[in-house]
Amino acid sequence: MEMIVNFLTxxxxxxxxxxxxxxxxxxxxxxxxxxYLTLAERRVIGLMQLRKGPNIVxxxxxxxxxxxxxxxxxxxxxxxxxxxxxxxxxxxxxxxxLSLVAWAVIPFGEGMVIADVNIxxxxxxxxxxxxxxxxxxxxxxxxxxxxxxGAMRSAAQMISYEVSLGLVIITVIMxxxxxxxxxxxxxxxxxxxxxxxxxxxxxxxxxTLAETNRAPFDLPEGESELVAGYFVEYSSMSFALFFLGEYxxxxxxxxxxxTLFLGGWLPPFDWPVLYLIPGVVxxxxxxxxxxxxxxxxxxxxxxYRYDQLMRLGWKVFLPFTLIFVVLTGGILLGFxxxxx
Length: 340
Prior knowledge:
Elements: H1 2-8, H2 11-48, H3 64-74, H4 85-101, H5 120-141, H6 145-176, H7 181-186, H8 198-211, H9 223-226, H10 236-261, H11 279-300, H12 306-334
Helix pairs in contact: 2-10, 2-11, 3-10, 4-5, 4-10, 5-6, 6-8, 6-12, 8-10, 10-11
């Protein structure tokens, strides 16, 4: 008994337990946020299009996400006879898990981060790059034409806009002089990066729309020509995992936007009264603002043609971001602002 007590009270076990607690403290609110983001999107789009949106299940429709989850859980999971069943099942899990693990390095407040690693921004970029694999696996494993076309579209789209995202992130790294996300946030204490790097902020936000397959770049899910894209053959909880993964990625990209360009947990002005509000509240408010922009754009913009999408990524964003990286480096070098 004493040996068990000594084991449970050892520093390694206590450290592991503390990490697990921090992980659950992030994942549980995130899953609740994903559920209510679906409701918020339907309500906001409804109001923008002069209709009600979900308002029956519970007061103001607040129980609608739980009703949707219950419906999906009660459905039968159908595995197509010609599908590669193992890959078919793993694909939605991979998409959902990748949307969660990226939160390990995002700081919610000063000292409020699961893993405060010095290359956090590279970790984020690596995880966001892996997201395409879940989509390709789903399209290929379905053994159907429409999902495969949707997967190929999505792969080309995500890879195209990751180039611009990478160059934007390089600009932020140069301006902050750090790869650690906490240091990047603290570098914005005097001025958020969205002001001096405004063109890159706009390109980053538009690229996140393309990365998450959101309107007006929802070509992989084009209902008019691809039925529903790469998850045509999915049903029940496997479909729900793709659905949850998409909305979790939206929140993740909003968190990245808030961290890299909107000062993270810092208030908008350096006034003592604003510091009375906890940093995590400021961070959540900024994420909510960016998510509202996601929803607003979906409600008001028509879908791009595929050639327009590719032209924007390769002929507009890529050369512009390259020029801006060189320009930013030149200005920082000229004024002696590059870190030693």
